[in-house]
Automatic annotation (TrEMBL):
PANTHER family: ABC TRANSPORTER I FAMILY MEMBER 6, CHLOROPLASTIC. The lineage of its organism: Bacteria, Pseudomonadati, Nitrospinota/Tectimicrobiota group, Nitrospinota, Nitrospinia. One of its GO terms (molecular function) is ATP binding. This is Iron-sulfur cluster assembly ATPase protein SufC. Residues 1-21 are annotated as: Disordered. The gene is sufC. Residues 2-150 form the ABC transporter domain. The keyword Cell inner membrane does not apply. Coiled coil: none annotated. Belongs to the ABC transporter superfamily. Ycf16 family. It comes from Nitrospina gracilis (strain 3/211).
Amino acid sequence: MNKGEVHATHGPRTGSGKSTLSKVLAGHPAYQVTAGTVKFEGKDLLDMDPEQRALEGIFLGFQYPVEIPGVNNAEFLRMAYNAKRVHNGEEELDPLDFDDLLVEKMKLVSMDPRYKDRALNDGFSGGEKKKNEILQMAVLQPKLGLLDETDSGLDIDALKAVASGINKLTSKDNALILITHYQRLLNYIEPDYVHVFSHGKIVKSGGKDLALEVESQGYDWVATAAK
């Protein structure tokens, strides 16, 4: 992948390897890599702890964001933001200045400012949880975003709001991998490349038209292509 690119991954709902790939790249402790290498800006990604990968610019947006009662949303974001600033040799932002920054980022993703004073995802609707994931991405400004089924469980209004936020965050300086089963997210976020997964392999790659092909034909042909 190059900077400025959006890659979408398609595949059957279970067992194709899309979510596994995203978690491996982010350093999820449940997965052990037994072969192969991953280079990120010339560095060995697999040799880094998850925290180090995040500081280097990897971001994973979860399909099912976790609720964490007792952890203030704004404070969580400020600590993560300042950890990255320190890693980059910059001074930490004080709470008042960060609050101003956070309010601006919340406007970017059409999120009610009241949610910054709530516990992290605690009692959030599905749509607000997904918006909160995009808010985290807006604050942390990762070099590579991995969004695992961000469209899952969203109604059309929430989907449009989340997609709009994602589009505002994409630039020539970052890259994005979208994991989705459906075309509807790609109606609002146009990918440069589409990859179809099956049994842990990319069985077909192409442009945005490939997503339309999958939408019309389904995944029955994937098993044959994987052989």
